[in-house]
Amino acid sequence: MRMESDLNRFRKIVRGKIKKELRRFISSGDLIARQGKKQVTIPLPRIDIPHFQFGDSQQGGVGQGKGEAGDQVGQGEPQPGEGKAGDGEGQHSLEVDVSLAELAEILGEELELPRIENKGKKNIDDKQYKYTGVLKQGPESLRHFKRTYKEALRRAISSGTYDPDNPMIVPIKEDKRYRSYKIINQPVANAAIIYMMDVSGSMGDEQKEIVRLTSFWLDTWLSTQYAGLERRYIIHDATAREVDQQTFYRTKESGGTLISSAYRLALKIIEEEFAPSEWNIYLFHFSDGDNWSGNDTVECMKILDASLLPAANLFCYGQVESRYGSGQFLRDLQKHFGEKATKITLAQIKDRDAIVDAIKTFLGKGQ
């Protein structure tokens, strides 16, 4: 019990450290580089629990070693060593494994994100195994150790073979007990995320890194809200194409931008793969705000109004500031939709420090 209490206390300390440094973790790419399949490794300042440490019994001290009256106490004789002494304090860090689910929970608490409301769309059934009792027969993988030991102990005591001085208990076949279970079909909501990004010449490496960091945290949060989560990636300049995740973040193109090409491809993917009656659909578009012409911007608004917004739970536009981008598209969206739009959220991401505010803006509606 003491060990479990200390472990829980340690976890609370780690959780507090992560909350305190969350903004730095969000704006840093190091965390994503440490990502595993279901967890990340987070470097934290070293956490030391106070404890007593015994010194070397040969070390000089009060009443020990050589000394004369009037010598300063506690300064033992200098010890020989190797190497050149440094004048700086050593830096110690502790690496802690944190599950993505716990990381998302911390993100939700710190940014005060609401849980996403179920939109009542069609669900899929996920098989869950629930243990319901104990049987005398079953596979060894389901053997109940505690119940088996109790049965063997009861048999040994009742038969008079139990020796308190040598309390060895060896279960026999009649002692073994096994867990029984039943399969429960639990409904799980389907969700699809379609990421879109401008990869034209005005979008540099830093802008793409900001998109990568923002997408990681969006994905982390939505993964805790839906068990069945699908992802699609679209890059565009003057034309759009669907790519895998790695290509999405590393592609660099040149030339102009037609944003409507990405919206048309997103609509095509929705129509072919994600029926709105069966899927919760999230659209995230990142750009520096440049578009080829005003006519294409008008076309974008038509596609959003007529097709994408009715099909989606949420459409989020993140404008990543670029020295080459005009930023006009964000103003066009604000002018067209105003502040009353319920399915669209807009965020201006000036730099990495603005990622936290963008995430809160995108996910703050709980849709």
Provide a quick synopsis of the model.
Strand 4, helix 6 and strand 5 form a beta-alpha-beta unit.
Describe this structure in words.
- The chain has three domains: 1-48 and 93-112; 124-184, no CATH class; 189-363, von Willebrand factor, type A domain (Rossmann fold, 3-Layer(aba) Sandwich), CATH 3.40.50.410.
- It has eleven helices and nine strands.
- Mean pLDDT is 77; it is low at 88-92.
- The strands form two sheets. Strands 3, 4, 5, 6, 7, 8 and 9 form a seven-stranded mixed sheet that branches. Strands 1-2 form a two-stranded antiparallel ribbon.
- It is flat and about 95 Å long.
- The two termini are 42 Å apart.
- It is α/β, with parallel strands linked by helices and 367 residues long.
- Helix 4 (100-111) crosses helix 6 (205-225).
- The chain has helices spanning 2-20, 22-27, 30-33, 100-111, 145-159, 205-225, 245-250, 259-273, 294-311, 328-337, 355-363; strands spanning 39-45, 93-99, 123-135, 178-198, 228-236, 240-243, 280-287, 314-320, 344-349.
Tally of individual domains: 3
The portion of residues assigned to helices is 25-40%
Mind summarizing the main beta sheet? 7 strands, mixed
**Could you say what the CATH architecture of the largest domain is?**
3-Layer(aba) Sandwich
Which percent band covers the strand fraction? 15-25%
**CATH fold annotation of the largest domain:** Rossmann fold
Name the features.
single chain, 367 residues, alpha/beta, Rossmann fold, two-stranded antiparallel ribbon, 11 helices, 9 strands
